[in-house]
Design brief:
By secondary structure, this protein is of the alpha/beta class. The protein is built from six helices and nine strands. α4 (about 170-185) links the parallel β7 (about 155-160) and β8.
């Protein structure tokens, strides 16, 4: 499959979204990237189109602009810290569900990738509020009816290429313990992934699929490596 892909990304200003965006812009297999968000993502590139949309409760108005995608990388997310369940549910599940409702009709041929988290509760019944809500979101994505769908659970991420976390606590760790992350990355390569691994893995899954639907750090490494090997050919 040497056809070049069109990719839709949400959450491009966050750490994972920016990782996906940068890898897509650099990648010869991707011909166009559309960043869907409420504001501009701050990057200019000939392959990048910005789709500004303020109402994440409804995507009907832009349904025609959501057609013809080969992949959707849903990287938009918030930390549950300090949020009531109702607000977290809206930001995590409702917005995702609204986009799926429109996108699955406009681009059913897309590979849908949802960035979830380690510890997500697929049963939707556990004690932890955020894990239940993310579990519901994962299940919605995996059963939505796209060409293929994956739930990403990246765990610890080593930021490369100047990418920063929007969560102050995480950024504090990266700033002061970056050497430790790099050490772990070198010594225990399967336990931690880099932002570049995440982006390359997403492109690989959109292009060629994968043998599992829940994607953990070791799977991210494996698929990213497969993708890089293809690029070398």
């Amino acid at each position: 499959n040497s056809q070049k892909m069109r990719i839709l990304i949400t959450g491009a200003s966050g750490m994972v979204g920016k990782a996906a965006l940068l890898q897509c812009l650099e990648d010869e297999k991707v011909k166009e990237v559309v960043s869907l968000g409420r504001s501009k993502c701050g990057i200019r590139h000939p392959k990048l189109v910005e789709l500004i949309h303020s109402d994440f409760n409804n995507f009907n108005a832009i349904s025609h602009q959501l057609s013809g995608f080969d992949g959707c990388f849903y990287c938009m997310g918030v930390s549950a810290a300090g949020l009531q369940e109702e607000e977290y549910y809206k930001l995590t599940y409702t917005f995702l569900n609204q986009l799926i409702e429109t996108l699955v009709k406009s681009s059913p041929q897309a590979c849908m990738i949802y960035v979830s988290g380690e510890g997500t509760d697929s049963s939707e019944k556990g004690r932890l509020m955020w894990a239940r809500v993310k579990g519901k979101a994962e299940n919605r994505v995996l059963n939505a009816g796209f060409r293929s769908a994956f739930a990403f659970r990246p765990g610890m991420i080593l930021p490369l290429k100047g990418i920063r976390s929007k969560t102050p606590l995480y950024q504090f760790f990266y700033t002061y313990l970056g050497w430790l992350f790099r050490f772990i990355y070198a010594v225990f390569p399967k336990s931690i992934v880099s932002t570049s691994d995440v982006g390359d893995s997403m492109i690989e899954l959109a292009e060629s699929g994968y043998e599992k639907t829940i994607i953990r750090p070791a799977d991210i490494k494996t698929s990213a490596e497969r993708h890089r090997n293809k690029l070398k050919l």
